[in-house]
Amino acid sequence: MAAKSKQLKLTEQVRQAIDDCGESRYRICKETGIDAATISRFMSGERGMSLTALDTVAEYLGLSIVSSRKPAQRK
What we know:
Layout: H1 10-20, H2 25-32, H3 36-44, H4 51-61
């Protein structure tokens, strides 16, 4: 039986996208207007980011949320 691959949490996916994007954190901060300390604390797992900040970073990186959950059947 094949094991299911573990799904990453949204914050983990954003952290991974920041690491993988090829841009420096400094550039991301400058382009998005998000404070460098906020990005640093988020990346270290010390703190989260506001939804507004996450939305800004996601837009900058070209990320979108895709649901893997099937919609509920309506009766």
